[in-house]
């Protein structure tokens, strides 16, 4: 990306970019493919309500746990080897869980697959910072776009694929092919693992605990956690909110499609704009304004121009590609990016794990979505504060209390 494509260096950069983008495409399907066929999985494996509930919360929990472990693993064996190990775990877990007969075996193998996915996810901003230091915005935009395409493809395609191939087991098995392609593309990347970057010394290591002792690290984590809360809640409950307002199931599904589909071009545009501005406070406040319009539309008149509220909600969840860009912009080194990404995403996903559950529980208790939606409106206050500070120009290394956090 930084050289002519006809030169050896230019060809190397393009090969690296392809490897990163194919990797990015694989970092959501293993998490979202369960939802569309959960009823079939529950019936085939005789899952109880508790086990089925655990399945729906596993992605955020795995992001939190493995996100905290990833920097230390990466420091010990190198960033590129860590991604390779993550891909092996993802492929093994996804393939094996497709053919087990035990619900708990399916759960444990899902943890293996999701752990591999989470590990790779944490290191993506660091990979971009390391390989494309002069093109962070463009590279982030491209991998954010591929992540959005991956999650949309898995959400829309899992059921048709299962119907075409004879069930969810065959669909899960077929889905492994894309992850195998990512692993094949990653083999040449292992050559980059040697050298000073991979063998970070204790002196240059920035740990999870060191980021945890900074206010800016917590600002990023709260920002990430609350934006994920909105995203998971909207994607999980928006069709139900519309149906309870009187919309048909088919049309409610279309509204969710709008809320996800509008985000695809934003996933490409937002990171590029953010990097050019360096302090994208105005963009962030605009995103928050769109989120407010969408929430108030659902509160006061969901059936008048329902597609418009879905569009505004999609615009309001564009804070995700924004914070992905910030993860690469708010550090001076790939090591700093790894530590910041790990802390931000692990703590953030832990926060987000409670959002959809609380939203649904309150709706069930009150028989209406009014209180749940007002809580989402109230959460905009801390998110705006955290996002404002995250969007200012700063670098995590400048805020470190110690450079060797545990």
From TrEMBL:
<protein>
    <submittedName>
        <fullName>MFS transporter</fullName>
    </submittedName>
</protein>
<feature type="transmembrane region" description="Helical">
    <location>
        <begin position="218"/>
        <end position="238"/>
    </location>
</feature>
<dbReference type="Pfam" id="PF07690">
    <property type="entry name" value="MFS_1"/>
</dbReference>
<dbReference type="GO" id="GO:0005886">
    <property type="term" value="C:plasma membrane"/>
</dbReference>
<keyword id="KW-0472">Membrane</keyword>
<feature type="transmembrane region" description="Helical">
    <location>
        <begin position="250"/>
        <end position="269"/>
    </location>
</feature>
<feature type="domain" description="Major facilitator superfamily (MFS) profile">
    <location>
        <begin position="12"/>
        <end position="390"/>
    </location>
</feature>
<keyword id="KW-0812">Transmembrane</keyword>
<feature type="transmembrane region" description="Helical">
    <location>
        <begin position="168"/>
        <end position="191"/>
    </location>
</feature>
<feature type="transmembrane region" description="Helical">
    <location>
        <begin position="347"/>
        <end position="365"/>
    </location>
</feature>
<dbReference type="InterPro" id="IPR011701">
    <property type="entry name" value="MFS"/>
</dbReference>
<dbReference type="GO" id="GO:0022857">
    <property type="term" value="F:transmembrane transporter activity"/>
</dbReference>
<dbReference type="InterPro" id="IPR020846">
    <property type="entry name" value="MFS_dom"/>
</dbReference>
<feature type="transmembrane region" description="Helical">
    <location>
        <begin position="81"/>
        <end position="100"/>
    </location>
</feature>
<feature type="transmembrane region" description="Helical">
    <location>
        <begin position="371"/>
        <end position="395"/>
    </location>
</feature>
<feature type="transmembrane region" description="Helical">
    <location>
        <begin position="281"/>
        <end position="300"/>
    </location>
</feature>
<dbReference type="InterPro" id="IPR052524">
    <property type="entry name" value="MFS_Cyanate_Porter"/>
</dbReference>
<feature type="transmembrane region" description="Helical">
    <location>
        <begin position="306"/>
        <end position="327"/>
    </location>
</feature>
<feature type="transmembrane region" description="Helical">
    <location>
        <begin position="49"/>
        <end position="69"/>
    </location>
</feature>
<keyword id="KW-1133">Transmembrane helix</keyword>
<feature type="transmembrane region" description="Helical">
    <location>
        <begin position="106"/>
        <end position="124"/>
    </location>
</feature>
<dbReference type="InterPro" id="IPR036259">
    <property type="entry name" value="MFS_trans_sf"/>
</dbReference>
<feature type="transmembrane region" description="Helical">
    <location>
        <begin position="136"/>
        <end position="156"/>
    </location>
</feature>
């Amino acid at each position: 990306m930084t050289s002519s494509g006809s030169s050896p260096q230019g060809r190397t950069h393009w090969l690296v970019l392809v490897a990163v983008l194919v990797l990015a495409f694989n970092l959501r399907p293993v998490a979202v493919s369960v939802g569309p066929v959960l009823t079939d999985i529950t019936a085939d494996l005789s899952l109880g309500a508790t086990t089925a509930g655990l399945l729906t919360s596993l992605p955020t929990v795995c992001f939190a746990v493995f996100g905290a472990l990833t920097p230390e693993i990466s420091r010990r064996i190198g960033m590129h080897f860590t991604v390779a190990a993550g891909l092996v775990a993802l492929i093994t877990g996804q393939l094996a869980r497709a053919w087990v007969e035990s619900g708990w075996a399916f759960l444990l193998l899902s943890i293996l697959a999701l752990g591999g996915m989470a590990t790779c996810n944490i290191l993506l901003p660091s990979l971009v910072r390391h390989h494309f230091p002069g093109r962070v915005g463009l590279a982030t935009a491209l991998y954010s776009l591929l992540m959005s395409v991956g999650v949309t493809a898995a959400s829309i395609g899992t059921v048709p694929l299962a119907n075409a191939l004879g069930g969810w087991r065959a669909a899960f098995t077929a889905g492994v092919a894309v992850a195998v392609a990512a692993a094949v593309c990653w083999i040449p990347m292992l050559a980059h693992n040697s050298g000073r970057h991979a063998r970070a010394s204790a002196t240059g290591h920035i740990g999870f605990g060191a980021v945890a002792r900074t206010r800016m690290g917590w600002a990023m984590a709260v920002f990430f956690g609350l934006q994920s809360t909105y995203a998971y809640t909207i994607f999980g409950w928006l069709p139900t909110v519309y149906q309870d307002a009187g919309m048909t199931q088919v049309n409610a599904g279309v509204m969710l499609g709008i809320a996800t589909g509008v985000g695809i071009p934003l996933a490409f545009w937002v990171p590029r704009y953010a990097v050019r501005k360096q302090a994208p406070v105005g963009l962030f406040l605009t995103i928050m304004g769109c989120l407010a319009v969408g929430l108030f539309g659902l509160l006061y008149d969901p059936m008048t121009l329902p597609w418009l509220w879905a569009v505004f909600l999609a615009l309001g969840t564009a804070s995700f590609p924004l914070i992905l860009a910030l993860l690469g912009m708010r550090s001076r080194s790939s090591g700093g990016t790894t530590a910041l990404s790990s802390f931000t995403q692990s703590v953030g996903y832990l926060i987000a794990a409670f959002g959809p559950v609380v939203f649904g529980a309150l709706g069930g208790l009150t028989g209406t979505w009014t209180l749940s939606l007002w809580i989402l409106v109230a959460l905009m206050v801390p998110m705006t504060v955290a996002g404002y500070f995250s969007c200012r120009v700063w670098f995590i290394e400048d805020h470190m209390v110690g450079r060797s956090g545990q």
